[in-house]
Design brief:
By secondary structure, the chain is an alpha+beta fold. It has helices at residues 5-11, 19-30, 34-48, 56-71, 77-85, 89-102, 105-113, 118-130, 143-146, 201-207, 212-217, 238-243, 262-275, 284-299, 308-317, and strands spanning 168-170, 173-175, 184-185, 195-197, 221-229, 258-260, 319-322, 335-342, 348-356. The strands form two sheets. The protein has a seven-stranded antiparallel sheet. A two-stranded antiparallel ribbon has the order 1-2. Helix 3 (34-48) packs antiparallel against helix 4 (56-71).
């Protein structure tokens, strides 16, 4: 097949093995011809990018081209030219994760200084924040940013977030963390307070924001519920209280809930939101961060308009428990989350459980 981007794109569905095309792109990039690789990606996108069911060859080759351009050290202008054409929002979020994982803050200034989609700028900003970078640029004063949903997020990592686990990208694949929550044994037994359920459809959706992708894009299921407690539970009674609520995720529990920290809860939710479940790749870093905050805000019953600082204060003041994989309800493969938060005044209890399987 001739090394012509449009010819390669035209004949692509008839190719039985795309690794030869990967090699062409790699060879041309190594020879300094990033323009060819960019033109190939653009030709692929223009021909197949808007098809409801593009051929598998396209998905494989386009992903390889995007990774080559985004992960190669040095200037990012060629990657930006491709991303500016491939305007699918999910591709943009993915590209932001790739770029931020491989480039310095100085190299990424081109995203804000030169031609680039506004959505890419918003995502790159928070991908950089997740990696500990401070982003100061006049673009953050633009109307687009001021009214963007990601603008609600803190512009630097908070103590609640700690150091989140981030994916490791390579040209031929990558890896990421799985949602895990280390616990310490909860105290023994105690009197169980009376409780009445307060779950609404909106509350359940807010609680499950970080894990919704498991159910919508994979094989996952979610249990998200809230209760009002007549009296604050004694510290020794929280485990028994959770077991008495009729939760599907704790029916016939084989292990008791254990204490965890607010940071451990946030990080498990971030991993679930950003990396996805068994059969999907999640929302990536920037939106994964936002979704984790939304779930935490719902778990601690923060007001809908609460700023991040207020959500964080409530999160650190709440008592957190984890019960991932504590019963047969959980698939116990790799993707299990079980979290409970007792509000700072002890009168509210929120539970989020999620599981997924391949």
């Amino acid at each position: 097949m001739a090394d012509d981007p449009r010819a390669i794109a035209r004949r692509l569905p008839g190719v039985a093995d795309v690794t030869g095309l990967w090699a062409i792109a790699e060879r041309r990039l190594a020879a300094g011809d990033a323009t060819f690789v960019t033109d190939l990606g653009i030709a692929l996108w223009q021909r197949y990018g808007n098809e409801p069911e593009p051929p598998w060859q396209y998905r494989s080759l386009f992903d390889h081209v995007l990774r080559l351009l985004a992960l190669t050290p040095g200037p990012v202008e060629h990657a930006l030219r491709l991303i500016s054409v491939a305007v699918d929002r999910r591709q943009v979020r993915y590209a932001a994760s790739l770029l931020a994982s491989a480039h310095s803050a100085a190299e990424l200034r081109a995203v804000f200084d030169g031609p680039a989609p506004e959505e890419l700028r918003a995502c790159v900003l928070h991908e950089m924040v997740l990696r500990g970078d401070d982003v100061t640029h006049r673009w953050t004063e633009s109307p687009h940013w001021r009214f963007h949903p990601l603008a609600w997020l803190p512009r630097s990592l908070t103590p609640l977030e700690g150091r989140p686990g981030l994916p490791h990208h390579t040209v031929r694949g990558g890896s990421h963390d799985l949602p895990t929550t280390a616990t310490t044994p909860a105290p023994g037994h105690g009197p169980v307070p009376s409780a009445h359920e307060t779950t609404t459809e909106a509350t359940a959706a807010a609680l499950g924001a970080a894990v919704a992708n498991w159910a919508e894009e994979s094989n996952g299921r979610i249990e998200a519920r809230t209760w009002a407690l007549d009296t604050p539970p004694h510290p020794d009674a929280v485990g028994d209280t959770l077991l008495a609520l009729g939760l599907a995720s704790l029916r016939d529990a084989t292990a008791r809930p254990g204490r965890c920290s607010a940071t451990q809860a946030w990080q498990a939710l971030f991993t679930a939101a950003s990396s996805g479940g068994a059969y999907n790749s999640g929302a990536f870093g920037a939106y994964g961060r936002l979704l984790a905050w939304r779930s935490v805000a719902a778990l601690v019953a923060a007001p809908p308009d609460a700023p991040a600082a207020e959500v964080e204060e409530l999160a650190h003041s709440a008592d957190w428990y984890s019960f991932a994989a504590a019963s047969g309800w959980f698939e116990q493969v790799a993707w299990d989350i079980g979290l409970a938060a007792v509000s700072p005044d002890g009168r509210g209890l929120a539970v989020l459980a999620a599981t997924d399987t391949d």
